[in-house]
């Protein structure tokens, strides 16, 4: 066979983010415009590093490997459709070779799609010769996976819902807060239902969904006020309540959407006990059974120690706020 030439290449790394005020549901499925604005913390040490090469036209279809495993089917289709957006913007037709490496367990509700599509957006733009601003990168990453628009930025990020492609993007939130999130890995198994499908079912069948949406705006304002006031004691309760409200709406869907395992409930209970003992600790839960505990950087080691004591055998890791998208090279 003929040698395949490389038209352009890029490499980028991004960290996963965990929402403090959640995104759950789309107003526009194709553009990924959410029904609510959301607020997140990008974490250190939960990263995806991705390289993209655009190849000569004779190279055949797009190819994708995740952690050295060749991918087909849904995963490849989703990446190809995303790359089509980049190709269209850049005015190119080239097939791509994509390779990515994760330090995030895949599909376990640890926001692997947030780091994945943020890193892919960065790497693909460099490879295609597109020079986008952070805001444009955020809009692009959003098309791959909603939560990915927040991983363009480090630390706290606010995704304003907007109403169309141009107005739906994330922005960094300035803060001096000393925050940490502790990931309590109840189970590393892949989720039983994708968040995409679960969101759809919640919107279309849960009688509690609209109540959660209505409350969400007030929750966000309260959270932002707490951040401005540097007040973790005010931020924690609204973070926990917003997540529990989202899961209440899921549990009320027909049939129910439940990401809870018995150990998830035990972990929530441990957090309540630790809080009753006077430490700062509030739990949040995403599309998987693993809880994340919001605390201060200063108390993180103590809280992790208390969690390990109460939840023997469970993997518990402290994560500090991490950087946003990093372009590594072309
Ligand atoms: C979030 N989650 O705000 C919420 C909370 C999970 C629970 O964003 O369909 O992978 O690709 O836009 O971003 C998970 O959903 O969904 C998510 P798509 P995504 O972090």
UniProtKB/TrEMBL annotation:
Primary enzyme class: lyase
Enzyme Commission (EC) number: 4.1.1.33
Keywords, alphabetical: ATP-binding, Lipid biosynthesis, Lipid metabolism, Lyase, Nucleotide-binding
Occurrences of domain Diphosphomevalonate decarboxylase-like N-terminal (ranges): 14-170
Entry superkingdom: Bacteria
InterPro entries to which the protein is assigned, alphabetical: GHMP_kinase_C_sf, Mev_decarb, Mev_diP_decarb, MVD-like_N, Mvd1_C, Ribosomal_Su5_D2-typ_SF, Ribsml_uS5_D2-typ_fold_subgr
Ranges of residues in domain Mvd1 C-terminal: 182-313
Family listed: Belongs to the diphosphomevalonate decarboxylase family.
Official protein name in the record: diphosphomevalonate decarboxylase
Organism: Bombiscardovia nodaiensis
């Amino acid at each position: 066979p003929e040698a395949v030439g490389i038209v352009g290449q890029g490499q980028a790394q991004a960290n996963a983010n965990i929402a403090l005020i959640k995104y759950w549901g789309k107003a526009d499925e194709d553009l990924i415009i959410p029904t609510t604005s959301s607020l997140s913390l990008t974490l250190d040490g939960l990263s995806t590093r991705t390289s993209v090469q655009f190849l000569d036209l004779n190279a055949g279809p797009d190819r994708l490997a995740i952690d050295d495993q060749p991918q087909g089917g849904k995963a490849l289709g989703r990446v190809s459709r995303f790359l089509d957006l980049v190709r269209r913007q850049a005015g190119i037709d080239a097939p791509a070779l994509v390779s990515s490496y994760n330090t995030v367990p895949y599909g376990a509700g640890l926001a692997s799609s947030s780091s994945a599509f943020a890193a892919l957006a960065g790497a693909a733009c460099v490879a295609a010769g597109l020079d986008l601003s952070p805001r444009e990168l955020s809009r692009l990453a959003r098309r791959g996976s909603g939560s990915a628009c927040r991983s363009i930025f480090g630390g706290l990020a606010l995704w304003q819902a907007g109403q169309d492609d141009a107005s739906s993007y994330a922005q960094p939130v300035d803060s001096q807060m000393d925050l940490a999130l502790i990931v309590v890995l109840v189970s590393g198994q892949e989720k039983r239902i994708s968040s995409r499908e679960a969101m759809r079912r919640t919107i279309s069948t849960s009688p509690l969904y609209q109540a959660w949406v209505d409350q969400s705006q007030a929750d966000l304002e309260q959270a932002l006020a707490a951040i401005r006031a540097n007040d973790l004691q005010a931020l924690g309760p609204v973070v926990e309540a917003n997540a529990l409200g989202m899961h209440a709406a899921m549990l009320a869907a027909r049939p129910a959407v439940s990401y809870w395992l018995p150990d998830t409930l035990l972990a929530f209970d441990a957090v309540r006990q630790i809080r009753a003992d006077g430490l700062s600790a509030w739990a949040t839960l995403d599309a998987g059974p693993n809880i994340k505990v919001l605390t201060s950087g200063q108390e993180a080691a103590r809280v992790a120690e208390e969690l390990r004591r109460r939840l023997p055998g469970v993997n518990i890791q402290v994560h500090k706020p991490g950087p946003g998208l990093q372009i590594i090279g072309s």
